[in-house]
């Protein structure tokens, strides 16, 4: 049976912007709220917090979350650092520092039972240059990027060999370019269904091709935005469901059930209101 969950950022992204009086307590309350009030069975942690808010997110807080996990019977996933982090950087100083940040984040999660660590193999620059690449064989930036990812995967699998890494499908950098490296290092995959739709790819076909490696899914609403005459773009990280939704939620969940997928499907919203609508859409699709 598919396990439905949400990113902790679905609530905390808004609240941390307002600077709560007791942020540590709000993190713990949010974990409990997602489990008890929203009825979710999985939660994805935001490990950038270890470095962006070190006075809040530390090993003590993670230990408290671990106790909550045991009490509530939660499945936990964790999104590895990606803000100002880039393991695909051709600049070796940047790449090494990024790998170190990711290793430290994984090690900090020792008190937790983490099902999968979601990893961005490319940073903003990879997503920026990749749409302009017409011939991958002739792109200098692509060669530098893939060589850096290769070194980073080698470093990570050496430093934390037992970590269940899951390379995320991005909306800019094509996953196909990095599949040889994912296979070489025997890594898992985080299938971001909505990122694939933004790219115009069929998520069902991707699931069928990669299901044995897929540790978890990300799911959020996708809409088509009209920019002008015959000019449109797809935008994501919206509430799931409603007019114009491009994610076929019933088809997706039915396909996952048919294929026997039992991993977590994480709703990756950025506001409480969007999460409320997304959970309602999931419940309707499941007939609850």
UniProtKB/TrEMBL annotation:
Top-level taxon in the UniProt lineage: Bacteria
Keyword Coiled coil set for record: no
UniProt domain Xylose isomerase-like TIM barrel: residue ranges: 34-270
The protein's name: Xylose isomerase domain protein TIM barrel
GO MF terms, alphabetically ordered: isomerase activity
NCBIfam families xref list: coba_remo_CbiR
InterPro entries according to UniProt: IolE/XylAMocC-like, Xyl_isomerase-like_sf, Xyl_isomerase-like_TIM-brl
Stretches assigned to coiled coil: none
Keyword Isomerase part of the UniProt annotation: yes
Keyword field: Isomerase
Pfam family, one: AP_endonuc_2
